[in-house]
Structure formats: structure tokens, C-alpha cells
Amino acid sequence: MHCPFCRHTDSRVMDSRTTDDGSSIRRRRQCPECGRRFTTIETASLTVTKRSGANEPFSRSKVLVGVRKACQGRPVTEDDLAILAQRVEECIRQQGQAEVEAHEVGLAILGPLRELDEVAYLRFASVYQAFDSLEDFEGAITLLRAGRDATGTEPEPRARPQTQAGMPPG
């Protein structure tokens, strides 16, 4: 690690701590040449291999963009989306691989999105899994219902949007 002040090629670690979410390590360093102290943050890199074969760093913001489109018009908050993106990243990192395929990222999104909002899940799944018929939608809905029946839980009813007059639309 180069000193950011004098560009000396060595530094001494004075203190190491993990960040609050445990995803990175904060190191306090001191340069033996100029004596100044500085902080570094170390994270494990995670690379996504796209269908085209290109590699790029994993990005929570890309997960958010895709999921936000599926959640458009749904009662889902930005905090809900941020938590979902964090869960997706944690799920991928738990696989213990430094490189994952884009397909794996999509699969990691489906579970948390299903728990968050079933309609948004169907929207995302229909694009991600390339639904091309009503039967594809019916099959996905059947699986959603079967999952509900297996757990014995119904999703909480969400409030319908209100018009300015306070009446439900339509």
C-alpha cells in the first residue's frame, strides 16, 4: 500500500476492525517514511460474468434498477429495495466464489423479491425467465399458491391506492 502523502511503498498496520455490516475491513496504517497515518478499507471483490462473456464487478445498484422496475406502482419502499439488494449480495457472497454468472444473480433476486411482493416477483420472473405464454404465468402463479399453502400463510393485504377524493380507483 502506497502512502497517500509521500508515495512510500510500505506502510505499517496499526489497527484493524471489521465494518458494522462485516463486509469489509477498516485498517489504520502509518507510513514508516513520513510518519503520517491514513485509513484503508478492504473488501473482497465479486465479479459477475455476463452472458456475453464480459466480466464486471457486482453492483447493488444494478440489482436495484432491475427490481425497482418490477416494483413500479407497488407499495414497496426504497428501504425495502435496499434490504433486498443487501440480501442478494449476501446470498451470492455466501456461495464462496469470487466470480458468479449473471444467471446466479437473477436467481438470488427471485427469493427475496417473492417474499417482498408477489406481483413484483411475477413481473421480474416473467422478464428474467422469458415467459412467452399465459401458461408460463399460470405455472408461476400455481407455484406461488403452492408455496403459500405449504407454509400456511397468506400475504398481508396491502392498502389499495387512494385517489384524491379518498376513494379507491376504478
TrEMBL record:
InterPro entries: ATP-cone_dom, NrdR-like_N, RNR_NrdR-like. Its cofactor is Zn(2+). One of its GO terms (biological process) is negative regulation of DNA-templated transcription. Binds 1 zinc ion. Residues 46-136 form the ATP-cone domain. Keywords: ATP-binding, DNA-binding, Metal-binding, Nucleotide-binding, Repressor, Transcription, Transcription regulation, Zinc, Zinc-finger. Residues 148-170 are annotated as: Disordered. Residues 161-170 have a biased composition (Polar residues). A zinc finger (unnamed) spans 3-34. GO terms for molecular function: ATP binding; DNA binding; zinc ion binding. Belongs to the NrdR family. HAMAP family: NrdR. Negatively regulates transcription of bacterial ribonucleotide reductase nrd genes and operons by binding to NrdR-boxes. This is Transcriptional repressor NrdR. It comes from Pedococcus bigeumensis.
